[in-house]
Amino acid sequence: MGIAVSPQIHPQVAEFIDKPRKMLINGQWVNAASGKTFPSYNPATGEVLAKVAEGDREDIDRAVRAAREAFDNGPWRRMTASERGRLIWKLSDLLEQHTEEFAYLESLDNGKALGIARAADVPLAVDLLRYMAGWATKIEGNTIPISVPYTPGAKYLAYTLREPVGVVGQIIPWNFPLLMAVWKLGPALATGCTVVLKPAEQTPLSALRLGELIMEAGFPDGVVNIVPGYGETAGAALAAHSDVDKVAFTGSTEVGKLIVHAAAGNLKKVSLELGGKSPNVVFKDADLDTAIPGSASAIFFNHGQCCCAGSRLYIEKSVFDKVVDGVADEAKKIKVGSGLEPDTQMGPLVSEEQLQRVCGYLEAGLSEGAKAVVGGHKAKDRGYFVEPTVLIDTRENMKVVKEEIFGPVVTAMPFTDPEEIIPRANDSTYGLAAAVWTRDISKAHRMAEQLRAGTVWINCYNIFDAALPFGGYKQSGWGREMGHDVLNLYTQTKAVCTKLG
Ligand code: ADP
Asked: In this structure, which of 138, 309, 359, 398 has its CB flanked by the most CB atoms within 10 Å?
């Protein structure tokens, strides 16, 4: 293959995408039971990048059987927590050693700028694995003094054990393909679960390459199984599977609701990290020299393909024009191009479907009376590029203000009274993130308390850390990823009670 690849391609990546990629089941790289493959595209050109085994129900069944056997009877369960932690750390080292290769793969498959993948996606993934490696030995229960009033005089020793939840199905999106795989795998492995991971059909390659490193690190067979395929087939089969104990999903709110229904059959545990329409509030007393580029990057980072993108920009009226012009100037400066070109800051959207979706929103907004201060259209003749866009003259009931666009499009709206901004910022079915820009520390923290969002950034945006929990209020999700909170998603508590003689 290799047809869609530019000359500066990394040699290991060229080799990796040259052959059809298989799926990882029980430590073996295998074809789909059906023998089918599906294409992964290069979004900068629209050409086929690689062919990948197309998993479906039968492959999911095989992978779940392998994960079940590894959980119930394999060496994984007998390993000490320290050995588990060391394996995760080893994986982090291997990933770090292959930073350049993963950055190329991510850039080619997803479209993002190589420099961003190199500086953000891969190092964040390495860091998260290290953070989770440390947790493996620190998952503790409690001793609990109990009174049992109906057995006067009796003495008990009671304690809790935190045990792995079991076989976990993990379904991930295409916006940060490697990082999302690691956000999911890290805590599952630290807690001693076994996994069937389904990467997004748009971007399966980095997860499959990570699978090779997982085997190289020495994880026992069946602990991590990776089955690429489409959502409606492989994803749905995994979410519904009766021998899966928990499903962890990151993606759209719409599909999140399908996952909840599918999980009801065996009442498997569910965690969801879903969409957002995050408010970004700039007060007139903010340091505008940081608030303006910060608000631009809040929406334009990763081409707006972030569930926490700052897509509703609220600006205090007296600085509205200055901030809008400033964000528009930032948008004009963004160099849009193929992810592999060295000066590219924004690549293409991930797929033709996303391009159509984002352009559909732009047309709807403009026809309803919104005005584009900058952008507003598809960019370039080839590939899935969209212009970074700032819309003004929008109303709260417009689709572009209410719905998640998942592209580089921000709606900028003025406000006059700081009291009015909380209900407006909270007027969303979502509640993933929010930001406030102000020099008034009391105002900032009062806002932080009142904003109904899982993350509130003050005078910054898109700050992520393995130690900081991330997740949604309202229809943005169930549960928290990262931090020690995530361990709750992958463990269950057993109460043990002994009567002392
Ligand atoms: P987006 O809208 O951002 O593409 P999706 O929510 O459609 O995100 O997809 C996120 C992940 O969910 C992908 O891995 C996709 O294959 C999977 N998926 C899509 N539909 C389903 C479904 N019905 N059941 C299970 N997984 C699904």
From this structure: 309
- pLDDT given for residue 8 in this prediction: 67
76 contact partners, CB below 8 Å, separation of at least 6: 70, 84, 192, 194, 219, 220, 222, 223
Confirm or reject: Cβ of 60 under 6 Å from ligand 1.
Answer: no
Model confidence pLDDT, tens digit, residues 392-433: 999 999 999 999 999 999 999 999 998 899 999 999 999 999
Catalytic residue among 201, 273, 387, 404: 273
| Residue where the block lists tokens 């059809």 | 20
Alpha-carbon gap, residue 146 to 161, rounded angstroms? 16
Q: What domains, with CATH codes, occur in the chain?
A: 11-274+478-495 (3.40.605.10), 279-465 (3.40.309.10)
pLDDT of residue 9: 80
403 among known catalytic residues: no
Q: Do 75 and 220 form a contact (C-beta atoms < 8 A)?
A: yes
Q: Whose CA is nearest to atom 20 of ligand 1?
A: 231
Rg (CA), the chain: 24
CA distance linking residue 270 with residue 481, whole number of Å: 13
pLDDT above 60 for 6: no
Dihedrals phi, psi of 374, to nearest 5 degrees:
-150, 145
Would the pLDDT of 4 be above 60? no
Expressed in angstroms, the distance from the first to the final Cα of the chain is 72
* pLDDT tens per residue, range 158-171: 999 999 999 999 99
In 181-268, beta strands by DSSP E: 194-198, 224-226, 246-250
307 lines ligand 1 (CB under 6 A): no
Q: Which residue, by CA, sits nearest to atom 16 of ligand 1?
A: 231
| Catalytic site residue from 54, 193, 306, 307 | 307
Rounded to the nearest whole angstrom, what is the distance from the C-alpha of residue 251 to the centroid of ligand 1?
Answer: 6
Sheet architecture: strand order including 194-198: 28-30, 23-25, 224-226, 194-198, 167-171, 246-250, 269-273, 477-478
Residue 239, ligand 1, Cβ within 6 A: yes
Distance, CA of 133 to CA of 86 (rounded, Å) = 7
Ligand 1 centre to CA of 406 (Å) is 14
Please work out whether the CB of residue 236 comes within 6 Å of at least one atom of ligand 1: yes
Q: What is the pLDDT confidence band of residue 2, given thresholds at 50, 70 and 90?
A: very low
Distance (Å) of CA 398 to CA 176, 312, 392 = 28, 12, 12
pLDDT > 70: percent of the chain: 98
